[in-house]
Structure formats: structure tokens, C-alpha cells
Please model this.
Amino acid sequence: MADPLLRVERLVRRFGGILATDNLSLDVISGELHAIIGPNGAGKTTLISQLTGQLLPNSGTIHFAGQDITRLPAWRRSALGLARSFQITSLLPDFTASDNVALAAQAHDGHSFRFWGSARGEQHLRQAAQSALARVGLADRADTLVSKLSHGEQRELELAVALATKPQMLLLDEPMAGLGTTESARMVKLLQELRREVTIVLVEHDMEAVFALADRITVLVYGRVIASDVPAAIRGNEEVRRAYLGDQHVVTRHG
Amino acid sequence: MIASLNARNSIAALVVAGLLLLPLYTSISGNVFVLTLFTRIVIFALAAASLNLIMGYGGMMSFGHAAYLGIGGYAVGILSSEGIGSGFIQWPVALLASALFALVIGALSLRTRGVYFIMITLAFAQMAYYVASGLAPYGGDDGLTIYKRSDFGGLINLSNRVQFYYLCLGCLFGGIYLIWRIVNSRFGMVVQGLRSNEQRMQAIGFPAKRYRLVCFVIAGTMCGLAGALLANNTDFVSPAVMYWTRSGDLMVMVILGGMGSLFGPVLGTIVYLLLEEALSQVTEYWALIMGPLLLLIVLFGRGGIMGLLGRLSRG
Model:
């Protein structure tokens, strides 16, 4: 097997006395859709934040495309092709949908110390934005302010923004959070298309979606990996069952 | 939306026309005082506009912006007292000194956020104030008289009231045009994006601090120009111009006019300084009236005068 695109080794992150990430190791192979599941408080978002650089680990290493990125700031990781969506929608609320995506394209189109020409007049940025918006089904909402978009549309826009950075890997933190049934179905369909182009790490509570989409699933409990395998094996894993059905609270699709 | 834009634009156009034609009025009426007052207003409008660039568009609440008024002013004053009267030297030095100060202050204070940023910019400006107070060879606390205005050869005569007024007005319009270009450029989009959501901007690949710092330096330099103009206008520069209440005045002018609107700071400055002038002639306790008045505008006019205009025309 080739080197993994993302390799996490013995990652540790403490918050005071709590071990949110406990000696965690993980490989994500290029081209796969790798889901990370686990009960509430298992440290999934903490892990994603360390992968994208919003949080620094106490120890351990993260390699992306063969490069040590453990201490790189978030913006440099983005430049290397690591994009994320946020669990709690994080966009530029007072900008239009199109502006949000165009800025992501601009970030990967040379430096932005250009003070004179109109940024909104740059056709190639606008076109990049338009095609990313079309990708997620928001083409006709391009000129709408983000604060006026519905929650579901904002989730889709998160994805369009991530796509516009032309990533090698997408880290999606609960893209289905707060979506209704039809919106969820649309998102699953969208992810099914995207997985053909880009490696995806998916953190999700919606088990139906996870088992429908994932090539491999890693299960986190209390910051530790208790299993990492293909969906069928995870389904039959005794330890996983215990984690979900035992003293830990059962996680449902609306978790 | 269109209607509100029109209302704002027509007010702006009216003010621009008024400012352009003001010397005509003074020459007809012989009322020189109005020209002197408006020269001051135009200079402060430039300072407020530069503060608006970082505060309104960049979301950086600098409480030390008056420091650049002093630095620009002292550059002119000190060079003049050392016998260097040429504006071609004085003004570039004023701009450069302001830019350098902004670079150092910005590099240190942009590590912090929110209240801490406000406090640290305030602290640095106060430091500049005390340094100026201690400059014994250049007047110390009492300030420094400038006996001869900056000399630009035959190009322009700063001692001529009308010429000087138009120079200030040119600087203001030039400054606003520059801000307009910047705000709509790639750079401006990044700075405004950082105001809106820094975490998101970092996640899509923008190094936040260096963009903020450059914006901070541009604003400081622009305010340094206002400082050089102000020193020429009063023929005098003193530490008082850097005092924290002066920084507060600038903030009020920006908020009053409308943060993050191109022309707001100009309106804010005009209203603020005219009110100050008018009220101080009625009573020496003018601040007692000014305070509540400002409170009302801030409470009921979100977005300042520009916001108010927008809502009025929408009905």
C-alpha cells in the first residue's frame, strides 16, 4: 500500500486534567472516504481542529502528503490542500455567498497585497466561485447575503467554500448537523459525487449516512481509537457495540 | 436599497459641492472664520477617514489614533525649528515616521484582541504623549510654535488661506478615493473578511496578522498626513494633540458618521466639530449637551448618520 495521505501518530491533547485526544494514531489513504464516529465528547472536533491547525497538540505528529504539519499555522495547511468545514457554521455573515467562495479561491491565487483593482471585478475568481456554488446547488443564491441563507444552504455553502480552495483532502465536521431529512439526503448525494474527486474525512453522527458513504470507519471513545476498519467489520465489532450501547449515551441521528 | 443609496449619495454630493464652493462664499461674505473652521474640519475628516479604514472596515478598534496627528505634526515642527523648512522633506518624514510608528505599534498590539487591543493602542498613544511632553528642546509640555509653514517652492503657498484650504480638501478627497480603491481591492476584501470571521479566513488560507498589520500602517500613515496639515494650520504642535481624549474624539466622529461607510467619517466630523463650535458659544458646559446628544444618535441611529439616512429614505 502507498504512503497514506494523512498520518497521525500518537497525538495527545489535554484540556486541564481531561485527555481529549489520548495517544491517537490514524491513517487516511488517498482517495478514501474515512468516517470518524464516536459518542458525544469523544474528541472528534478536537481531533479535526488539530488536523487543521486551530488547535495545537501537546505531543505527537501529523503528516500530510509526506510533510510534517504538526506545528504549521492553519493558513499554511490550507495552502497545502487541507480544507475543512465547521460543525457550527462558520462563514462571513455580512458577505454574499459568492463573495465567501470567491475569497476562498482568491486565497489560493497568489498573495492578496493588491490594493488597486476591484476584486469583485476579477472574472476568474467569480467564475471559480460560481462553479463551486453550482457544485453544491447554490448557483441561484450567489448574490444573497449569507445571513439571509437558510441553515441548510449555509451548510452547503461551507462545502462550496472548502471546495474552492482546491483541496486534496476535505475534513468535514458534521456536515449534516441540524439538517432535515430531505436536506440530509441531498448532502449524502453530494458527498457521494465529491468522494470521487477528493479524499474525505467525515465526522458525522448520522449513522445511516456514515455506513452508506464510508470506505473505512474509525471509532473514537474518550479520545482513543477503539476500532478502525471497513463498515461491515465495525458493525460487528463487540467493543463498538458496548461503547454505543453500554454506559455511554446512545447516539442517534439527531445527536 | 437603490433609494437609500441615492439619499446617501445625494447628501455626499451636496457636502462635496459645499466644501468645494466654501472659499467662494467666504470671499463674497468676507467671513474668514468659516474658512478657518472648515480647514480644521477637513483635516480632522481625513484623520477620521483613516481611522475608519481600520475601525470600520478592518474591525480594529484603535484607541490611539491621535498619536499619528502628533507624530506628523512634530515631524513638521521639529524639522522646521531645525531650519529645514522644505515641505518636500518635512512631509515625507512625517509620513515615514507615522508609518514606522504604526508598524511597531501594530506588530505588538495586533497580537491581542478586543478590549486588550483597545487598551494597548491607548497605552502606546499615551506613551507618545508623554515622550512629547518630555521633549524639552522642542517646547515640552508647552508645545512647539512653527514660525514658517512648510515651503513647497512656487508650487503652492500654505500661508494663503484659500490655497491651504484646497490643499487640505485635496488630501481629504485623495484619501477617500484611496480608501475606496483599497476597500474594493483584493486586499480590502481580505481585511473585511477578517473583521467578519477571522477563524474562517485562516481556514481558507489567509495569514491574518500580516494583512491586518499592513492595513494598520496605511491608516497610520494617512493620519500622519493629517497631522502635518494640522500643524501647518495651527502653526503650532503640542502634546495635547495626542492626548487620549483626542483619540476618543476621532472614534466618536467615525461612529457618529457611520463605521464602514466611505463618506460617513466626513459627515461625522462636520457634525461633531460644528456642534462643538455652536454649543461652546452658548455655554461653557457644552459637553453636558453634547454628551446626551451623541448618546441619542448612537442609541437610535445604528450605523450613524449614514445608517440613519439609509433608513429615512426607505421610509
